[in-house]
Amino acid sequence: MRRFGRTERVIVDHIQKISAKATIWEIYDLVKVHVRSLANLNVTRQNYGLVLAPIILHQLPHRVKLEWASSGKGKEGHVEYLLNFLYEEIQWRERSSQLYLASDKSEASGKSEARKRPTKTTGSGLIASGGDTSTSNKKCGFCSQPHYSDKCVLQ
């Protein structure tokens, strides 16, 4: 401890480093590292739990805080319980994102199948494709004669 000065300063430094904004994984990893460091300094959970838990919770998304409020009742200062909760939340999000990506891929493959089969939904598409070549369905829109409108001399 002589190298770093006062033990109190080292403890405060560990707690301050935890308060840096980060993703949930980064928060989890940071807390694990600094809690271990605090344990090595013989600082017990009872000494830092009630101070550290609100710092950690402050960095989490609102929805995660709501989940914690319902599941962490009575354990507000229990950092190990909070870490277990965060780990479960991370696992849930990863499973959820994997399912989301899998459903996205299946939807995308379905869309690409649909793109391979062109659909002709307009009259010009029907004419361009050859459509029905019988003269009974040919009727000009301009003169009502039995020919296509693009061949009409009146247009």
Polypeptide structure, described:
- The chain has helices at residues 7-18, 24-40, 45-58, 62-71, 79-116, 123-128.
- Helix 1 packs antiparallel against helix 2 and helix 2 (24-40) runs antiparallel to helix 5.
- It contains six helices and no strands.
- The chain is mostly helical.
- It is rod-shaped.
- It folds into two domains: 7-116, no CATH class; 122-155, no CATH class.
- The chain is 63% helix and 0% strand.
- The mean pLDDT is 75.
| Count of folded domains | 2
Give the amount of beta strand, in percent.
under 5%
Task: Compute the average pLDDT.
Answer: 75
How many distinct beta strands?
0
Please tell me what the overall shape is. Answer: rod-shaped
Binned, the helix content reads: 55-70%
* Amino-to-carboxy terminus distance: 97 Å
- Give unreliable regions as ranges: none
User: H/E order of the elements?
Assistant: HHHHHH
Number of helices: 6
Q: Radius of gyration, rounded?
A: 34 Å
Helix/strand class: mainly alpha
| Main sheet summary | none
